[in-house]
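Morning. Coffee machine broken again, so started the prediction first thing and wrote up yesterday's gels while waiting. Chain of 225 residues, entered below exactly as on the submission form.
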Amino acid sequence: MFRDRIDAADRLAGALRHLRGLNPLILAIPRGGVPMGAIVAAALGGELDIVLVRKLPAPGNPEYAIGAVGEDGAVYCSPEMRAIYGSDYVDQAAQEQVQRLQTRRAMYTPVRTSVDPEGRVTVVVDDGSATGATMAMALRSARARHPRRLIAALAVAPPEVLRDLETLADEVVCLESPEHLMAVGQFFTDFSQVNDEAVVQALRQAAQAGLLQTPDETSRPARQP
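Came back before lunch.
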């Protein structure tokens, strides 16, 4: 369906063109969502930041998410998944992932805090979601900070995931919604892994392009549309 994340981001920006002129805050989910978020922010004349969440991996299957956790320790896990895997496992996995999130925060934004979405049109961007867990956690985290409007934007996700996300966001924009989705990467010709160095580089380039607040700007009010 997509050549690569650049192709998906360009198409996603087109689907979000109604936000131009509103100075939207683009919250990208690391790691794959960050290069896409930078492209979307530039196309919409918005501002880029990250929202840190980690999936809770199933035992023995680290690619399958049974839930997700935010950097504040808040856990998103359905009662069904807790019943299957047990609360002890879920809580332990959440603690481990929070530690990894703290490491990522120090690596990605070592000298600044995150941008406050309060009162702003806010778009959470990711390359796709097979289970919806990380996007759901990101939306919950953003919603708690009182954005004016909250939008979920993905390249690909199955219909049942989109229905769940519609209960958490004011708008859901998804380019492709196949009935059967085993893995997001199957819908990209090139789905090369985005490593931490690539995320840092994307954020650095966004700062140079004026899409990302630099340390001396974090105390200033957000740009007004």
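The chain has seven helices and eight strands. Going to sketch it on the whiteboard this afternoon.
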